[in-house]
Write a structure and sequence with these properties.
By secondary structure, the protein is α+β, with helices and mostly antiparallel strands. Bound molecules: guanosine-5',3'-tetraphosphate.
């Protein structure tokens, strides 16, 4: 293929890709929306009614046993499907706040997000946190206000809350008529037509009624009680609310807002169309050295997630790799920047709704699953030779700590192995103190439960977990060797090493942290550190 043709191929493939995540507070309807989107993409044939899923505690995107037991989405998964000649990569994020680190990492790999809001509950705690994360990268957000088939809050009220709480401008692009038992449908403000709601269908039927124009007499005929309110509200909106502005959306300043009912498949297709028409194609990404354009020939990308035991039949660990430029083809030779080694990738995987298959080719925006025996870690960059490192996937200073001890002392090695692997996977942070003891650090309590469960199930280790008396951790860097020596002499009992050998100060209390910082004003105390980063130590 000539160079021009190759460039054209890359441009075309990039242009038809959309990579996004759905974010929501638990129970707002993320799983339901995911299933309906997959249904449109033909990736699944039947959306398991979420109720049924809950009953059996199993969903297409749930892999880990513990998810089934608790009915929450713990691990993130990736699903690729095609729709209208576009390749859609949907990245699932754990809704539970205890997995905020994992969610953060997933959000570094997307170009857009869909935010689901429960219309009865409005903006909830986890929505606020997730949006803050999107803000850090100005990720464009499409909003879906869900559950209008129930008695919920008024749409104006919800818009106001989104604007005030999340500090993002709302541009309603559809408007609900009624709610609960009197939910009649959604008026599309951009095309000036009404989609009439009939509940209870898996797919919207092709003979559904579309009524063109706000003044169409058919509306008076069908909804004599509600049509006047609709007209008033639409007039008001057109005067008072911001019109949809794609530029502002792409800058992350404005969110188009859709209303609907995920479970009834109402408003879902509109969200999918918005993703295709408005959400950005894979964008240029900043590596430490330079900006990389998605249509550049050589393949580059980074690992944003490691997941073990996705398939219980194969005890494998998969590194999720976001392609940032170039083209993957089986057999490609890539340089692993952290180790400087070359890797030949023969059988990277593409993930569909509930299966995965060997990928034939992949382009910027796609997520590949690379089989991994510990060589790949979160944050690692792979390139076709260029020395280039993608940045921006941090570890956060944990706030909860515990010590792990095997009940059977003969299992100490197993415990060590398990913790090291789970630490590399990002399931938990593992520190080693000056006595060689392992300390686990987490952002949320549930992370400990998962680790205990997995150590038992995957490594056959029953361990005892005792809370450790630590207030928080700070990564240290020292201006010179003398300061380092002084610090370690004085504080050795509170200093541990992280997985990459960086020194970490484990503060027993807030007060002690403050005193120590005052005593060593030249020492850096950091609340985050990049994956794979080795801090300079004087
Ligand atoms: P999540 O992934 O964000 O946690 O939410 P999920 O899709 O699992 O949905 C949470 C609950 O909300 C489910 O009820 C689901 O059926 C319901 N739901 C989702 N979309 C809609 C909608 O458009 N209308 C209505 N009325 N309900 C919706 P569930 O499994 O029965 O649990 P629960 O209702 O007993 O809590």
């Amino acid at each position: 293929m000539s160079e021009d043709n190759q460039l054209q191929l890359l441009r075309n493939e990039v242009a038809r890709r959309r990579t996004f995540a759905i974010i929501s507070h638990p129970d707002a309807g993320k799983t339901t929306l995911t299933e309906k989107l997959l249904l449109y993409g033909g990736a699944i044939q039947e959306a398991g009614a979420v109720k049924a899923r809950r009953a059996t505690r199993h969903a297409t995107s749930d892999w880990l046993e513990i998810e089934k037991q608790r009915g929450i989405s713990v691990s993130s998964s990736v699903m690729q499907f095609e729709y209208n000649d576009h390749v859609i990569n949907l990245l699932d994020t754990p809704g539970h706040q205890d997995f905020s680190e994992d969610t953060y990492r997933v959000l570094t790999a997307v170009d857009a997000a869909v935010m689901v809001i429960d219309a009865a509950k409005g903006v909830e705690a986890q929505t606020i946190k997730l949006l803050e994360v999107c803000r850090l990268r100005n990720t464009p957000i499409i909003t879906f206000v869900n559950k209008f088939d129930r008695e919920v809050r008024g749409p104006l009220d919800i818009l106001e809350e989104i604007e005030q709480t999340l500090k993002i401008e709302c541009a309603p692009v559809s408007w609900p008529i009624g709610m609960g038992k009197s939910f009649r449908g959604v008026f599309d403000l951009l095309t000036d037509r009404l989609l009439r709601f009939r509940g209870g269908e898996e797919r919207r039927s092709s003979d559904e009624e579309i009524i063109q124009g706000l003044n169409n007499p058919r509306l008076d005929e069908l909804f004599p009680g509600e049509v006047e309110t609709l007209r008033e509200e639409v007039d008001l909106l057109r005067e008072a609310s911001e019109p949809f502005d794609r530029e502002r959306f792409l800058e992350g300043m404005q969110t188009p807002v859709f209303f609907g009912s995920g479970i009834n498949n109402f408003g879902v297709q509109e969200v999918l169309h918005a993703l295709i028409d408005w959400a950005p194609e894979p964008q240029a990404r900043c590596a430490a050295e330079r900006e990389v354009r998605p249509e550049e020939q050589p393949l580059t990308g980074f690992v944003f997630k490691i997941q073990a035991n996705m398939d219980p039949k194969h005890r494998d660990r998969i590194a999720f790799f976001r392609v940032c430029s170039g083209r993957y083809q089986p057999g490609i030779k890539l340089k692993h920047l952290r180790s400087g080694r070359e890797m030949r990738i023969a059988n990277a995987q593409t993930f569909m709704a509930n299966t995965r298959k060997a990928s034939d080719e992949a382009f910027a925006g796609d997520i590949l699953g690379i089989h991994n025996h510990g060589q790949l870690q979160i944050g690692d960059t792979l390139t076709e030779g260029e020395t280039l490192g993608y940045r921006g996937i941090p570890y956060f200073a944990p706030e909860l700590f515990c010590k792990a001890r095997p009940l059977d002392p003969l299992k100490a090695k197993q415990l060590q192995k398990g913790l090291t692997e789970l630490g590399e996977e990002g399931a938990i942070q593992v520190f080693t103190d000056s006595m060689g003891r392992k300390l686990l650090g987490a952002v949320g309590q549930l992370q400990f439960d998962i680790v205990a469960h997995r150590l038992q199930g995957e490594y056959n280790v029953d361990a005892q977990y005792e809370p450790a008396d630590i207030y928080t951790a700070r990564w240290l860097n020292f201006p010179d060797k003398d300061v380092r020596k002084q610090f370690l002499q004085r504080e050795s009992a509170s200093v541990a090493e992280d997985v990459d050998g960086n020194p970490v100060y484990l503060a027993p209390s807030r007060y002690k942290l403050q005193i120590t910082q005052e005593r060593f004003p030249n020492v850096g105390f950091h609340t985050t550190r990049e994956h794979g980063e080795v801090l300079e130590q004087g």
